[in-house]
Design brief:
By secondary structure, this protein is of the alpha+beta class. The chain has helices at 2-25, 92-99, 136-142, 161-175, 180-184; strands at 36-41, 46-51, 56-61, 67-73, 105-109, 116-121, 127-131, 156-158, 191-196, 203-207, 211-215.
């Protein structure tokens, strides 16, 4: 019983720590953006989070309550808001013009031995990635994410997804089984969440209208 009680207390402490980290993001969620959206568990201590308000990816320590330990902006520094505390929707016309070039991330994922981070965006070409010098899991095991600052602002893109999206829509039309309302209301760039198998063998990409795509 003592062991069970100790485990329960330990679990409760972790939950409180996680709650603290999640609550720390709440001030950044606004009506003008999605805020923190996607997440990927690197290991038991660190998670990767995508945040559209800041057009960035964050590494968060959920075990020790350290909060954000690394930040990867998905745009160049000259496209930052005019003030340090500004985010999407603030800063007037100049910022809104800059926002056109923001990635606006949604889903995010990697894998145990992958030297990349994939993310989805509701802006074409929809699926992008950052190249890493080593896997996130290795960084997490060494508690060292310093090299991530070198990849900020340099996303690369998988440009074929708009073609895949259109091909899937065409197949749906030809099947005769599609909901007419869904087809008529279809708009491109509705890719959402992203998952990659831990061994990197395949990935799964959800779409608002078209279901789930599998890629390798």
């Amino acid at each position: 019983m003592a062991r069970i009680a100790a485990q329960a207390l330990d679990t409760s402490a972790h939950l409180v720590c996680l709650l603290f980290v999640l609550v720390s993001f709440l001030p950044f969620v606004t009506a003008t953006g999605k805020g923190p959206v996607g997440s990927y568990a690197i290991n038991h201590q660190y998670i990767l989070v995508s945040d559209s308000n800041f057009d960035a990816l964050f590494i968060v320590d959920v075990l020790n309550g350290s909060g954000i330990v690394a930040t990867m902006a998905l745009h160049l520094a000259d496209l930052n808001p005019p003030t340090d505390d500004a985010h999407f929707g603030e800063g007037g016309d100049d910022h809104m013009k800059a926002f056109k070039y923001w990635v606006d991330p949604t889903g995010v994922a990697s894998c145990d031995e992958c030297n990349y981070i994939y993310f989805t965006s509701q802006k074409e070409p929809n699926l992008g990635y950052l190249e890493l010098d080593r896997p996130l899991l290795e960084m997490a095991q060494e508690h060292d994410f310093d090299s991530l600052k070198d990849v900020a602002g340099e996303p690369k893109w998988q440009s074929l997804w708009s073609n895949v999206e259109q091909s899937a829509l065409d197949l749906l039309r030809q099947s005769g089984e599609a909901d007419t309302k869904t087809i008529n209301a279809f708009r491109p760039s509705k890719f959402r969440m992203l998952e990659i198998h831990r061994d990197g063998s395949r990935g799964y990409l959800t779409h608002y209208d078209l279901g789930v795509f599998v890629f390798t």
